[in-house]
Amino acid sequence: MNDNLHRDDDRAVAEQDGAPDTTIPIVVYVLHLAGMVTGGLTSLVGVVIAYVYRGNGPGWLDEHYRYQIRTFWLALLYFGISGLLTLVLIGFLTWLAAVVWLVIRCVKGLKALNERRAPDNVDTWWV
To answer: Which residues pair with 20 in a beta bridge?
Structure first.
């Protein structure tokens, strides 16, 4: 494989065979998914990585970082509300809905990343 460093507008992007490297966004999606097991700790690491790498690639790749950042903040909101609602027992259902939402969102992002395109509906609060 031919790895080279491409400089465009003072931004460095690792490339393989002329296409941007998608390893970092894949890692961030996996960290978001692992956050369900680690209580959100790995998701916090993932969002920091997304903030650091945002703006260092082509537009479609930057949209993935934006999508991952929004996923983190929305998940924090949804799981926080679910935590509060557990006091009235409905929180267990909303927590399950938040888990399903997070998995669908990450799978959609990974699928779009595999197709080397921006994820659909980046600005949505849903999936």
So the answer is: 15
List of the chain residues with pLDDT < 70 = 1-18
Sign of CA dihedral 95, 100, 104, 107: positive
Give the pLDDT confidence score for residue 10 in this predicted structure: 40
CB atoms within 10 A of CB 36: 17
The Cα–Cα gap between 27 and 35 comes to 12
Strand order in the sheet with 19-20: 3-8, 11-16, 19-20
3-state DSSP assignment of residue 8: strand
Strands annotated E in 9-68: 11-16, 19-20
Task: Give the pLDDT score at 34.
Answer: 98
Burial (Cβ within 10 Å: 0-12, 13-18, ≥19) of residue 43: buried
* pLDDT score, position 19: 79
3-state SS class at 22: coil
